[in-house]
Amino acid sequence: MKIKLYNTLTKSKDDFTPLNVNEVRMYSCGPTVYSFAHIGNFRAYIFMDTLRRVLQYNGYKMKHVMNITDVGHLESDADEGEDKMEKAARKENKDPYEIAKFYTDKFLEDMNKLHIETPEIIAKATDHIPEMLKFVQEIIANGYGYETSKGIYFDISKLDKYPVLSNRNVDEQIAGARVDVDPEKRNPYDFALWIKAPENHIMKWESPWGLSYPGWHIECSAMGRKYLGEQFDIHTGGVDHIPTHHENEIAQSKGACGKIPAKFWMHVEFLQVDGGKMSKSLGNVYTIDELKQKGIEPLAYKLFCFTAHYRTSLNFTFEGALSSQKTLNRLREGYLKHTQGNESIENSIIEEYKTRFLETINDDLNMPAAMGIVWEVVRNEKKSKQFAELLLEFDKVLGIDLENSKKYLDEQNKIDIPEEIQELLEKRKQARENKDWALSDSIRDELKQKGYIVKDTKEGMTVEKL
Ligand code: AMP
Ligand code: ZN
Q1: Confidence (pLDDT) at 176
Q2: Which of 122, 336, 377, 406 is the most buried (most CB within 10 A)?
């Protein structure tokens, strides 16, 4: 069946077929590991996960690369400010590599909690300095790069067209002088490929231009080409990447190889908080752990993301996320009911659901509508194991671990039992093993006074809060 995906490059929903039969080569811009990833960042990775799951559901194999930016991402996308990694290292008084490892591990842990499939290749920028250096040298050799006292810059005037992804008018912005132009740059929108390191810079490497470090955009061009070739199928990122990072990646690839590296460029809209921007200064930047503390499971957050199409902005509120938690539990209960059902369902009905689901996800990942179909199956009055199986089939795309529904519900129903009560329960268990019924009864009374009811069942002792 046809897959249609919105392509920022053509500004239309285009038919998707991979360049290689059966295999999709995809590159996703990954995190800059100077701090905890927040739920906005994870909206981008949930989108990336859904995309790869949809492609796999259609029978394609994935060769998917995600980078980890551990050098070169400056505070401003306009090549200004400090390197984010170095700033964090100075603040935390640690080695930048230590900072990178800590936040990379935490990021991958959160990805697992969200059941985001790990891309086939995770590539760290600092492991690819020689590839990046070679890429820059090719750009210079082809006449697109030049040296200034600050580093090596890309000359955008040498391109047939710049920008190609966004509609921004470079000339107009120059006329408006909204950017502080470095007089050594040939064009105001020329960007850094390689940066000469000041004396106190920690992360720096030998290069033909002395001790220096890569600009942010070159890592994605070099690592994309290394693992996926000069041209591959899909490149993903957030909408913030359109005007600078992805535009400059395209420029670099055209400079070195004469090609736009990916056929499809796909971008996820931003997550907003309470209708506005998520920012540290407003104190509204939340992590997956912080949601958990407020009773919102990572998978409930994933479900929350499915309430909006990836190309529309989504407004986060705790109320909304808590409601997704309830929805998730109802979905689990509904699935479990089907696992116990004995009705027989005509094959044509199952097939019709499957076709509708596939049509919907293949229509540029229409997850809100796909969830509507999931609910039709969950709510079907006929309870059937065939429906349970169908839901597991759909879960290949949702990735919400429906198969383990019972485990999640049991965990939520478990009550927190204080240590003192645990000890009394253990004592009572001993008393019963010793057939000391008088002691067992008195402990039961004591527990009741403390607010806990014990019951003896065939399966053993159960405890409930009064
Ligand atoms: P960074 O770690 O800043 O390089 O960002 C990692 C990813 O998260 C990028 O793809 C960004 O586009 C994306 N991103 C950042 N903030 C948000 C947000 N509020 N909503 C959705 N995606 C975001
Ligand atoms: Zn990138």
Answers
A1: 44
A2: 377
